[in-house]
Description:
By secondary structure, this protein is an alpha/beta fold. The chain has 2 domains: about 5-220, Alpha-Beta Complex (Spore Coat Polysaccharide Biosynthesis Protein SpsA, Chain A); about 235-310, no CATH class. It is about 40% helix and about 20% strand. The strands form 2 sheets. An 8-stranded mixed beta sheet has the order 3-2-1-4-10-6-11-9. Strand 7 and strand 8 (about 135-145) form a beta hairpin.
Amino acid sequence: MINALIEPLVEVRIPTYRRPEMLIDALQSLLRQTHQRWLAIVFDDSPDCEAKGIVRSLDDPRISYASNRTRLGAAGNINQCFNPSPLCHEASYFFCLEDDNLIQPQFIELNIVALRESGCAVMMRNQRIFARRSSGHVVVDGTTLGPWFSVTGVYSSLELCARTFFYTGVSNGALFWSRTSRSVLYDRFSVTDPSLQEYVRCWGLSEDIYIDLAPQALYHLPEQPTDRHYTTDKSFSRGIQSAHRALVRTYGARLVCEVVKLGRLYGQEQQSYRGLSNLASFRVSWLIVRCGGRIILKAFLRGLIKRVFIASPLRLYPD
C-alpha cells in the first residue's frame, strides 16, 4: 500500500472523439481507483464538444475539459497525451487513458508500487482484451502482451524493441511513467496512424522498462477500425518496415541478434527471419547470418519492392 501521508499526484490524460458512452465508462473506472490523488484532463477532438457535457455531469473537480482548437485526428489527440511537459507541476506520475479503454481499481496504486520497487521510471502494464456487445462487455481470450514476455520484471529498451518484430509496439494505454523518465514518448514527427505511433514510441525509449504481466486494465477491441487518419494496409506495412529499419540503425547488430534469439526462444524462427529479411537491407542480411539465422529471399524481395514503390508514412524517421 502507498503511504497516505506522501501519496503522489497522478496526471491522467484522456483523448476522446465522439464516443460519450465509452468516455463515461472510462471515467467511471478512473473514479473507482483505490489511489484517489489524481487529476485528469479530457482532450476532446470533436467539433461538437460532446465530452464537455459528460465532464460537467460528473461534477468532480479533479476532472477538467479541453477542446482542441484545431482537429488533431486520432493520432494527434493521443500524441498530446504523451507531452513531456506536466499540466500540473505537482504531478509525479502520468498515463494515457483512451476513451474506449478501462482500468481496474488498483491500476494506479499497483503501478506506482511497481515503479518504486523496480527502480524504473517507465513501465508497461498488461491489458486484457475485451469487446463491447449489446449484452455488455465481453472479455476476449488473450492479453495485449501475449506470450512475448515470459516473466514480470525489468527489460532493457533493446529487449523491448526486439519484441516489436513479433507483436505491436509500446501500447498507448499500457504505459505508465514517472516525471523522472528520460524517454521521449511523444512523437515529434506527427505520425498520423495511432497504431504506427506505438512502434515510434518504442524508438523513443532510452532506459530500462518494467513489464508487469498481471492485467490491471482492459483494452477495447473495436468491431470496426476508425478511419480517422489511419493509413492503408500497404502503407501501414511500409511504416512498420521504416520503424524497424530505424531501430536497427539505433541498436545495430545487437538488435538483429536479439530478434534471432527470441525467434528460437519462442519457436518462431521463421517469423524472426522473415521480419528481418523484410527490411531489405544487405547489412541486416549479413547480420542475420552472422547471428546464426538465415535470410528468406522472398521476404527480402518483397521488402525491397515495398521500399521502392511505397512511400513511407514515417517520412521524417531514418529509413
